[in-house]
Amino acid sequence: MAKTLQERRAERQLMIVLLPSLLLLVAFVIYPAIYSVYLSFTNEALTGAAARAPRLIGSRNYMRLFGDAKFWNALFVTFVFVLGSAIIGQFVLGLVSALALRRRLVFRSLFSSIILLPNAAPEVVAGFMWISMLAGGDHATLSRIVSFFGLPTADWLQVFPLTMIIVVNTWRGIATAMILLTAGLSTIPQEIYEAARMDGATPAQMFRRITVPLMMPTILLYMLISTVSTIAVFGLVYALTRGGPGGATELISIYIYNQSFTAYQLGYGAAVAVITLLVSLVLGIAYVRAAKVEI
Amino acid sequence: MSVAPPGESANRGRADLMAYASLSLISIFCAIPFFWLLIASFDGNAQLFLRWPETWTFANYLRVFTKEDGAKWLFNSLFVVGSATVLVMVLSGLGGYALSRTRAWWKLPFLYAILLIRVLPSTALIVPLYKFLLTLNNAEGALLRPIFGGATRDIMRWTGFIDGYLGLILVLATMQLPLSLWIMKTFFDGLPRDYEEAALMDGATMIQRIRRVLVPLALPGLAASGLFAFMSAWGDFLLPLILLSSPELQTLPLGLFRAFLRINEIDYGLLTALAFIYLVPAVVAFGFARRFLVQTFSGGVKG
């Protein structure tokens, strides 16, 4: 079917109004992503001889990665961080909140507002507040709470650094999990529960046999989204610990930053970044396919 | 409504009680860190730990503006994030309209691309982005210096790509574009074409159609797109950390972070007041955005 002149003109106009967005995305996202692949094969640095005359060094950065204990440490820390905060912490507390908020409770909107609050706090403010919560000495809030229960206090960020950043990130992300899971719960028809209740099912049975299986797709999507977004966490943990003590909280994002802007090894930093980009991209593709996003 | 057997209502009561208990515990967990910020910022002798002030005072807030450059940081943050938000609203309004209405071959690839761009962590892009911006910045400097000479630095403060407002605004806006384009595309999908077609029949040009018909209809969508862009750009720490170095360009997150790093002279009253000033616009925007949260989170990849 031949397009009319008017239709073709309209299509051209649509392309023109989209062009500025396309240009910005290509310049500041797509091109840097491709450029990082190139950089990862060079010995590019911010200072020194390599900064003036960077050259291609083949796969040497990637070889170095495999033997770099700090890189494996960063991968391990990131894995535990994602598992502890996104997959377990945020998910469990988000699910409990979503289930509880489905009931007709008196302070429902007050509860949900408070749970949303940590998500609204900027990363640096959140980190700063938790420095006070977790400070050493008997006056810090967490130390007071545990000693109220008769437990020993500690300099939390020094003794349990990884556990603490998991707690903090869990705190920040309960809202996201709650919102997504609430949306998933609302798609389960109420009639199914009523039918089950007629048949004499207990609440525990209904949860296991109805809620969990019907929520599976939502849960899977939540896991993928939160994994990807937790891999990207930087400011919250950087403001709290800057990766320390001794690399105990050096997430892959902090490792990239430190390699590039503290050690000035841009090429090596880019190799780590490329690995991170690939992992995120694979999870992202899995998400788009699993979500059957309507376009 | 059917009459519930006696065991059922007891069950319900116990379940409600459990719901109250767990929600209370989770709410306490969520709210507790904020207490220190709120109380210490009004404490005449604020400490790192939570305590009831002996004297209540506004002096901490005054010091943010007299002793530190709080006013400048606040202006920089508002200016940079505000400009980026306006830019995102304009671009996502136009682009979202195009993505919704076009029948061209690039529609699907473009939409899949912006979904996938949203999963790329900005920490992984920051190194090549920095290199690229440095190149642009040097080129701009080389171009301007022969014309403006010594005044170049003052101009580059506004138009530079590294350590200049323009670069930070453009990059911040770009990072918010995928979500905003998605929101606007979905929004326009829900608007019937009848209005535009009627306007087209009446011989309205593209510009007239946008101004008279589409903008008024699209305002709720633009509000959502702008709010999410504002919240995300306002909270961003990485980009200003890497792109800015001059003290006169510092934004609130940088001012807060750097003031905290001066270990020997930490003034907790001033820091908490500063953090509270930085927190308020974020919470207000979040309050407005609440009703859009569900659609946005479930519609695309997370916000």
UniProtKB/TrEMBL annotation, chain A:
Keyword Cell membrane appears in the UniProt entry:
yes
Instruction: Return one Gene Ontology term, BP aspect.
Output: transmembrane transport
Q: Which residues cross the membrane?
A: 12-34, 71-101, 113-136, 156-181, 219-240, 266-288
Which is one Gene Ontology cellular component term of this protein? plasma membrane
Q: Where in the cell is it found?
A: Cell membrane
Q: How does it sit in the membrane?
A: Multi-pass membrane protein
The ABC transmembrane type-1 domain extends over 76-287
- Extract the InterPro entries matched here: MetI-like, MetI-like_sf
Metal-binding among keywords: no
Keyword set, alphabetical order: Cell membrane, Membrane, Transmembrane, Transmembrane helix, Transport
A Pfam family of this chain: BPD_transp_1
Looking up SUPFAM superfamilies in the UniProt record yields:
MalF N-terminal region-like, MetI-like
Main location class:
membrane
The text of the family note is: Belongs to the binding-protein-dependent transport system permease family.
What is the designated name of this protein? ABC transporter permease
Automatic annotation (TrEMBL), chain B:
InterPro entries according to UniProt = BP-dep_ABC_trans_perm, MetI-like, MetI-like_sf
Please name the SUPFAM superfamilies in this protein's record.
Answer: MetI-like
TM annotation in the entry: 20-42, 73-98, 110-130, 165-184, 213-231, 268-289
One GO CC annotation, please?
A: plasma membrane
Source domain of life: Bacteria
Where this protein primarily resides, as one coarse class? membrane
Subcellular location as annotated: Cell membrane
**GO annotations under biological process?**
transmembrane transport
Could you confirm whether the keyword Cell membrane appears in this record?
A: yes
How this chain sits in the membrane, per its record, is: Multi-pass membrane protein
Question: Which residue intervals define the domain ABC transmembrane type-1 in the entry?
Answer: 74-289
Indicate what this protein is called per its UniProt record: Carbohydrate ABC transporter permease
